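Our working data are protein records whose layout never changes between entries. An example says more than a description, so a record of this kind follows.
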Amino acid sequence: MTPLRRSLSLRAATALVAGAIVAQCTPAQAESVVKLPAALVDPAVNAKRATAVLAGGCFWGVEGVFSNVKGVISVESGYHGGSAATAKYELTHDGKSGHAEAVRIVYDPSQVSYGSLLRILFSVIADPTLKNRQGPDTGPQYRAAIVPLDASQRQVATAYLSQIGGGKYFAKPLVVPVEAYKRFYPAEANHQDFMRRNPKNGYILRWDAPKLAALKRLYPDMVRAKPAP
């Protein structure tokens, strides 16, 4: 069986199991969330647009949550960390490509800061104490990672990890890497906007819809009226 089919089979199996249990799970029960503090180091950015690259497990849910954040202009699923030759879904799932499933977020810094994006990432999307896995998905392609695009973002990232790591919000040490930016490769069209287009998908219902519900519950003032494209 190819890596692609193994990966799709895993998600298909997860979807079948999810269909049996989702009726018994409330959003709060389905996902463990942590309401984290605002970033103490989060300088203002004097620009109408800025870009962030972040990884937090399967990009379906990462994109789905961030597209509902006020100030986010667009979110695109893709791959970061490897080469152009392996920036394809079927070539990333042996864990050897170097890529992580990631998202590229274009946002308005006057409405949402880089530190706020990190706060959301680690509050409701990704567990920063897990290495090379999130939810049911395992392997380095599912790692949580921060990919700063400039010195200011790197400063915010390292400071925030230190802040929440030292704040006893998590029972285990944080293992999130701050990675050097290489190049972001957009994912295939069928992966873009997957959560909005497939709200009844079993994987989405079990693993990603609870994250969006947690965003709305914990940070209602940060939620858009309609998802960004």
In short: Residues 1-10, 12-30 have pLDDT under 50 and may be disordered. The domain at 33-195 is CATH 3.30.1060.10 (Peptide Methionine Sulfoxide Reductase; Chain A). DSSP finds seven helices and seven strands in the chain.
